[in-house]
Structures are given as C-alpha cells and as structure tokens.
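A student in our group prepared the protein record below, which I am reviewing. What it holds is a sequence and that sequence's fold in token form. My question to you is simply how this chain folds and whether the tokens agree. Do not assume that whoever made the record got everything right. I have pasted the whole thing underneath without changing anything:
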Amino acid sequence: MPKVLISDKMDALARETFEKRGVEVDVKTGLSPEELINIIGDYDGLAVRSSTTVTPEILDAAKNMKVIGRAGIGVDNIDVKAATGKGVIVMNTPFGNSITTAEHAIAMMFSLAREIPQANASTHAGKWEKSKFMGVELYGKTLGVIGCGNIGSIVANRALGLKMNVIAFDPFLTEERAKQMNVKKVELDELIAKADFITLHVPKTDKTAGMLGKSQFEKMKDGVRIINCARGGLIDEAALKDALDNGKVAGAALDVFEVEPAKDNILFGHEKVICTPHLGASTSEAQVNVAIQVAEQMSDYLLTGAISNALNTASVTAEEAPKLKPYMTLAAQLGSFSGQITSSGISKVEIEYLGRAATLNTKPLTSIVMASFLGVMSDSVNMVNAMEVAKDKGITVSEIRTEEVQDFPTAIKVTIHSEKRDRSVTGTLFGSGQARIVEIEDVPVEAALSEHMLFIRNLDKPGLIGGVGTILGQAGYNISDFRLGRTPDGEHALALVSLDKPLPDELFEKVSNLEQIDTATRLVF
C-alpha cells in the first residue's frame, strides 16, 4: 500500500480521501527541515501547501518519493527542477482557488476605494471621523488588469459587473479573446497611464519581477490605487512607498510581499496601505476544494498511474516513455524559448514534427511545448491543462507532420503567429539524444541551451563579439558559449550567448545599447 505524508495544515477531507482510496497517510505538520529529512524516505508521496519548502536536500533523502502534490497553484516552495531530476512528479491544483483569489482582489479594491480598514479602526476607537474618510466610487473608473489569465479574467468579469471600464495587459491575450471578455487589450505603458485602479495577476518571473517600479509609478495617473493579490516581488516596495509618500499613489492594497512571512516591511504602518497575510486562497470552500483535489490526484497516480495537473511530465505509456524522453526535453526548450522571445498577442501556434519526430505520439509533446510556452507568463499552466488554457486565450494550436527527411533526420519546429510578426525556432536531437537549437527565425544557428543565456538580434557588422565580450569580461562574467548565425544575404543575423550566471539589469542595458545590436533578450531555462 502506498504511503503519503501530509506535512502542512489542510482540510481533514484530504486525509479522508487518501484513506478511502486505499492510500496510507500520516499527518505531521510543523516539521523542521531536519525532521522532514529524517522521515521522508518512508513515503511515496508528499502533500504540501505553502509552509513546507521542498529542497534538493529533502528530495535526496526521499528515496521512495514518486509524487509531490501542492494543494494550490503556486509551487514556489517546491524545487521542481530538482524533483524532475529525481523522477518525482510535481502536481498542483491550478483551478481550485481561482474564484477565492479573484474575490479577495475585488474585496481589497473596495476596501481601498472606501478606506474601510482605516475607518473601522477609527470607529472602534470612538473617534467618529466621518469627514476624514472620503472615498471614491468604483463606478465608471478604469481598472487595469495586468495578467488576464484564469484569475485575472474572473476579476475583469466582476469589475464589469460593477460598471467599471476594464483594460488589460497580457502578452498572450488576443484581440478576439479580449472582445469576448468585453475588455480592451492594451500595452503595459497605456494601462499604466490610463488606469484609476491597477490589479496584478501574473506569476513572479524574470520578466515580471519589479514590473511596477519608479519609472512606472511616474507614468501613472495622480491618485492611482494599486492592488496585488498575486505574488510578492512584482512591485518595487521602496518605489511604492515613495509614490505613496509624494501622493502619486493614493493607496495600495497588498496581500503578498517580497519576503514572506512578512514580519517587518517598509510599507507596514503606512496610513495609505491595506495589508493582509497572503489570504488570497483562504476561504473554507477553497481549502476544501484544493485538499480533496490534491488527494484525488495523488491517489490516482500512486494506485493507477494516471497523471493529472502535473507540472513536469505528460501522459505517456510505459512503451513510449524511452523514445519520447529526449523529445520531451527538446519540446520544453522550444516552447520556453518561443515564449521568452514573444511579447505581443498570439493568434496561433504551429508545431511541425519532421522526419522521425512525425512518427511519434506527438500529443504529449505538443502539450509540453504549449505548457512551456504559456508557462513563461502563467504558473497555473501545466502539461495537462495547457491546451485548454490556450483555447481560453483564443490561441489556435496546430500540428503538422512531415515524415520526409529534410535537413535533419528528426526535428521539431515551433512557429508563433502574433499580431506584430511571426517567430519560429527549430530544434533537433544529436548523438545520444542531446537537444540542439538549429534554426531561429529562418537563421541557421546550432546551439545547446543553458540555464542563463542572451538572445541577440544584430546587424551583420564587425564588433559584436568584441563588444559583448568586453562588457561582460570587464564585469567578471564568463561566456561559456557564443553562437552566431546569419542568412546568406546577411540581411538577418543573431547570436546566442551562454552565461555562467544571471545578467543584472545594469550590464544587460550596456550590452543592449551596443550599436551592432537591434534587440537583446535575457533567457532562462
């Protein structure tokens, strides 16, 4: 009988569900990392919420671990890469608390508009300061929704019911889908300039970290109000405090913070700030939903091998697994690469399987491409729900199979059709299944992807290698690989640069400003 440990507090129905399915379960909460390491080797599964941090050290000790289930959306507390390396499936429950989180954002917006927490404290103190708390109406105001995925779209829908004007910024939102939702799709700068209220609903990634900072606040309307029930670190907290102090921002309602648990914060005590301790998913209904779902998903996998809402694998039979494994790596790289170099509304994703790749079970590969592509901007997407999420966003996904061998005996090509331009990237497998990029936007280039990279579109003129190398070398940044490519006529050229560590903003800006460079993008794999 498989055995599961529940290491965080969750609804009792989780335990009941495991036991009814025939899974042995222990509930041991509040364990220190050392205590967890000492016992984790006895378990086949681990069910967590946000308190337990699953580190490589814990995974090393989890000799029998097959699956980790997160009762909720975010898996920031789970080292998914390390789990994947150990062959451990990581599952979440991406839709169990969407309504709850969206409703909390709306509640925070109401509280912000009418200063309800401050008025409540004043009234309890017997002050009756009726004239002090002059709020604003939501009716007729413009709400800017940053991130219009599952939760953001619910917030937009509720705001429309309040007769607000809703504008949305989401790189993956098409004009057609925006019209269906009755929201106006805009670029981030336009949203920042026009919104009376701004609410964030994106994951924290390299692209979104600090996305609202000093320069963004300066472009906002005077008296704008900010709501963040998504992830800490999306807002530069020091810059927000300055904007609150100088009156640019009339108020902020925050459920998340850059450092959590937030026992001390620069914004605490500010009269214009409303704070809650990461309560977005904290309703009795949501807790029940995610507890039951995670127990059902983990039980299904441990007892039958069925996989639901997995973040690091797809549905594959035992016979297909050995053949598909290297292609899964390639598909994930191509999807992630495409997502990181795409910034405008997407209408269609076209995935071509060429040569031997066309003879495989391509369904899980397509799901992996889309999960990695959409995962650049949304942490609620996985291999199981990627196609549904794409459909909800108005993105058409098509597969093309061509068994005839062309430039390579096997290859996958991903083409992104967006409102501004089409982008494509092709990859193949070398030798014993090593993934390689062999073409980007019709420019031949051969490169293995590394954890930290620079993708450069450049003019085909001398000095690029020297310029990039000089800037990085003087800063002590080692280049582990530098690959160049260009079309035969020299009209288009590009470079892929592998780095040993992440490139900070200051150095990235210096590199981007080189005269030979058209555009530069930091990539993370």
Q: What stands out?
A: The chain has four domains: 1-93+282-308, 98-275, 314-435, 442-525. DSSP finds 17 helices and 22 strands in the chain. The CA atoms of residues 124 and 465 lie 67 Å apart. Residues 284-304 form the longest helix (21 residues).
